[in-house]
Amino acid sequence: MAQTMGRNMAAPLLFLNLIMYLILLGFASWCLNRFINGTTYHPSMGGNGATPFFLTFAMLTAVLGIASKLAGLYHIRAWRSDSLAGAGSTSLLTWAVTVLAFGLACKQINIGGHRGWRLRVVEAFIIILTFTQLLYLLLLHAGIFSRRYGPGYWDTDYGMGGGTAAPGEPPKGTAGTRVV
């Protein structure tokens, strides 16, 4: 059980973030479509000068988040150091773009004006996802501190056969060669 503690903590957060990124993509797409069509007078739309930039980064964040969660699903299934590299790097990139969208959400809130409920939902999702994505990223990399929480970065029990041979036998893959 100790080997899967990190997996058991990261999996629900991964699923929650995936659902939130899908919802964010839907709302941001709807809002951007209304903004492009020039129908900002719609009661549930509104907007201000930061809206087009915010919606562009919100959609980019959502698409990167969905792709990151797909890599994360593979890592949760495999739970090895080689899958951690892909999941960790995409999660870090997603978090960076989410922080940019978070800054634009703060700017849009600060400017004020009429913002419809759908724009406020997009803002809220970006703010929540900034922190949940950071927590997920930290959970993925918890193996740095203890193998109890992750696959660890010093895993050598797979690959070229290192560490799998019985004492006194040559390692697998060396075909019995002996180095003197």
TrEMBL record:
The keyword GTP-binding does not apply. Keywords: Membrane, Transmembrane, Transmembrane helix. It comes from the Eukaryota. The keyword Glycoprotein does not apply. It holds the Pfam family AWPM-19. The chain crosses the membrane at residues 12-30, 50-72, 84-105, 117-139. InterPro entries: AWPM-19. This is Uncharacterized protein LOC103499466. The gene is LOC103499466.
